[in-house]
Amino acid sequence: MAVTALSDGPEIQRLPQYKYVDAVRWLPPLSPFDRFAVLASFDSDSDASSIEIHSYKPNPASLEPHSSWVSPSRVSSLKTLQFLQKTVIAASTYAGSLHFLFSNSTDASLESEVSVPENELHRGSISSIDLMDGGVECVSVAGDGRVNLVTVGNSNLSYRRVFDSSGLVSYTTAKWASPVEFATGGYGFSLHWWDQRKPGGPVSQFKGNWDQKMTAGIVHSIDIHPSRKHTCLAGGSLGTLFAWDLRWQQQPIILSRGGTAAGNNEVPLVSESEVWEVQYDRSTKSNMSSTRLLPAMICSEDGILAIIEQGEEPQELLAEPCSINCFDIDRHNPSDVICGLEWEAVAILTKQ
Length: 352
Fold this sequence. Notes:
The protein has no helices and 29 strands. The chain is an all-beta fold.
């Protein structure tokens, strides 16, 4: 099954940044005419890291600097959330600190910040964070095997450790499924499901042992659709994209085979390198029944941004000569996608 280009391809605009783009996220729109994006940037010349809010203007597309915050270390994970009258930007760092920035809902200017210092939550780098919809609660995971929950108030925060494997398990990514449930991914294509009503450890586990090659892979990104919280979408090494359904826990649904099922021509090969990020694509209208997986979007180390739908040929949106490190779909305008390119640039796509 081949990867095909969309017959009516997206409008693509590439915007040089002259700094390395570690992460990109859309901010919830302030009005139909005021839209903003958040960039986590790293300047290799000065060894400086920052969180930057840019004003987005279409036709032609442009990103104009609006406000910024200097990070004490390079950003490892970036999330945004609208909560009450504030926009929350959460950023973790490779030094192990966690920061929450609050921007004004009127003009998107940064107003305040609260932080967890280095080595309070994790020993060393924080791999991934995720913010819970409907409340400022953040889950953090890392290679040290710790899982933490951080609750953010108006001017303070509290945190507690949910689990500590003492390094026996390494976590690389996390995603909320409900106010009490979340999933984590890690090495060996493993996935864990957590329920705060049942403390002590994960309530369900999945190990990528359906093929010998899966035991050496890494899950880099996961996503859970709010209408189908029982299914976890996971992307990782060797171009692999699969779904874990809690109703059939040891039978993964492979959407992109990578190097895991080379002899199975029914499973498409979208990328042969790392899948850095995966999100459910809310803008694609699926022809499948409710029993089939919803369409997903991925970006990869070999420069592919594509839509993958179960039982259909993958659709290529963007092919770059460098890695596409990250992307974000605008929840309020799902036809707009922003990507961070390895060659110090941002690409903005508007799907037709």
